[in-house]
Design a protein that fits this description.
The protein has about 400 residues and is an all-alpha fold. Helices cover about 75% and strands about 0% of the residues.
Length: about 400
Amino acid sequence: MVPELFGFLIGVVAGLIPGIHPNTFASLMLSTSFMLSGFFDSHELALMIFVSSVVYSVVNIIPAVFVGVPDEDTAIAVFPAHRMVLDGNGMMAISISAISSLLSAIISLPLFYLMIFLQDMIATASSLTLPVLVLVSAYLIMLEDDPFGGSMSKWKKRSMALSVFILSGFLGYVSLTRFDSHEISVLFPLLSGLFGFPTLIAGMTSEKIPEQSSNIKAPSMRNVLKGAISGLFVSVFPGISSGVATALSIGRKDDEAGYVASVSSANTANTILNFAVLVSAGRVRSGAAQAFSSFVSPEKFLFLPIIGVAAAFSAFAFTMIVSIPAAKVFQRLNPSRMSAGVLLFLISAIFLTNGFSGIAVFAAAGMVGILTLYLRVRRIHCMGSIIIPAILFRI
């Protein structure tokens, strides 16, 4: 149980601290494996990487809800979750997310073995990646609607959404090709600018976070299933990240609770099923899976989904326990000062990790994020920053 416990602690730390990801720890473990081998064997190090990834997919909703600093997995959930906080339902948002992730992990159990059974189909799916990405892009644009403005107004809004999608995609491509590296990811400043910056700016105009109720709400199984299937679908195709899975899981008529449930479910399912692709077809779909395969032979780990469910349950319990005092603390804070403080922390963290180039990416991304507020289109279209580079890299 020692490697599983260390994996749990790594996942908690990565989930609670903005800008930290299990891939960061996985890379660190790879580079220091000669030292860690004196304490853990390769089998235990691989388990630590897997457990930390699953725990992270559950716990990372806490800073997304109360602080508004997103990563690729929670970016889409930030604004809907913040609306729930402003309505006094922050605890409800966290409970929906945590339960959705746990249910998604359970659903991923049979899906994991189904993917092993269909490994030949998975191995040949890469040829469909480009048309899938194009269809996902069209789907996101068509989500935009204007029920009170008529058909022309609807298409005008979709054209504005397309502009945001293309603009964020151009920014994402330039950032990933010019500033990204194996050691330091530019996704932190990019996504913080696109999704976190507008939320923090809006938070500076708030006077006080309303008292948060202790209501706990179960998610809609429809949203959980939709998220899990999106996670399954996206994990099959190379070059499609978990951020695309979360974008694909969103429906046109989903309310805030539906957004949070779908995003959380897709996030956890994609995390677990990335390892199913690794075990069944030997294909790498994430940085954590890459590090995992460097330590052990993946096909020997047919019991991984069972450990994944146990890790998700532990993370669910931790999230529910921690979120109760967290909600009480945040409702006593001045949201304007807190937003300013978080923004200052973000800029400092970006400078320390990415330097002046990271600040430039953050500033440019922040302007695109603010544009979504001005045009009144969904911030989901900023996922073009991930999807368009994936399309261009496939051409």
